[in-house]
Amino acid sequence: MKNVQTAAGPRVLVSRFVEDPMMDLSLFEGTAMQVAFYRRRVFRYFDHRLFKQRLHDAGIQVESVHAPAMDVYHQANDEFMTTLRTIREVYGVEVITIHPQRGDKRQARAYYRKLDREIRAMGITLAYETFEKEAMNTKWISQLKEMHEYFDLMDFPFLGITYDFTHGDSLTMMDEVRMYHRKIQVIHLSDALSRRPLDGNEYHQHLPLGRGDYPVEQFLDLLTGLGYRHFVVLEYHPCNDHLLRHDAAAVDGYLHGEREGLLAILEQRRRGQGL
Predict the structure, then answer these.
(1) Do 2 and 157 meet the contact criterion of CB atoms below 8 Å apart?
(2) CA-CA distances (angstroms) from residue 150 to 113, 126, 138?
(3) What fold, for 11-273?
(4) Which residues, 6+ apart, have CB-to-CB distance to 56 below 8 Å?
């Protein structure tokens, strides 16, 4: 696995799902971003070079890409590798978040064995995203411990992990990450209301920090204690885009010893939520 890290500590990015290359970028000007795609068809017919130029013109630095909802099983028409090549060539990033899809572990290993040489030559890390325990029956891999153990067994150096904070169990995540953090290259950070049933619209997940009941400060302190030096990506529901830039700056400050800004945000929002 290519070890992408910075000398000064974690790199804080904002995230936004993209479907239109002409989307309004004004809220993100001057930020560092993980560009996020979701629909495979949108990605296939998207004008990536136009969008990359618009990002550049807005002073947005693309440091990671969230691939659309496809996986190594999407071999028809070379879709999987074509997607990875496009991301690498157009956006120039080294770390790509992948949503695991339904499939068989042995088949995934066989496919990656065939693609091993080309993916290594691309110099990228494929960081598979973690999901709730309920996803274990719908995705070939979804849990942090499971990923560490099986990726070690598969022994492909380009496989890493995107740990989604609000996809974890708020009661056990701290111990889990403390034990299994070695392969994490990306943290998706937001807040959530725990003990709620899964909601496809995610109205109780991907909330702004402080509007849920997840242990935000304790988690960031854990990352600092572990010496984590990779990406921390703020991933909010689009209705909260206007908060991303300010919150990203506060998280960056917190991770580099200036804690007051984020603590003030969390206190204010929790008080407003009655938490």
Answers:
(1) yes
(2) 14, 14, 17
(3) TIM Barrel (3.20.20)
(4) none
By the 8 A CB rule, do 217 and 269 touch? no
Contacts of 27 (CB under 8 A, 6+ apart): 241, 242, 244, 245
Q: What is the sign, positive or negative, of the torsion defined by CA atoms of 183, 188, 194, 199? A: negative
Alpha carbon of 23 to those of 61, 162, 228: distances in Å? 16, 26, 33
Please enumerate in sequence order all residues whose Cβ is within 8 A of that of 158, keeping only pairs 6 or more positions apart, or say none. Answer: 1, 2, 119, 120, 124, 125, 126
- Per the prediction, the chain carries an average pLDDT of 93
The distance of Cα 151 from the centroid of its chain, to the nearest Å, equals 18
Q: What is the mean pLDDT of residues 175-191?
A: 97
Nearest to 12 by CA among 28, 38, 34, 35: 34
3-state SS, residue 64:
strand
Long-range contacts of 116-121 (CB under 8 A, 24+ apart): 116/156, 118/81, 119/84, 119/156, 119/158, 120/157, 120/158
Q: Where along the chain do its domains lie?
A: 11-273
pTM attached to this predicted model: 0.94
The pair of structure tokens assigned to 245 is: 């830039």
For helices 216-226 and 244-255, angle between their N-to-C axes, nearest 10 degrees:
50
Amino acid at 202: E
Is pLDDT of 79 > 80?
yes
State both tokens at 218. Answer: 């304790």
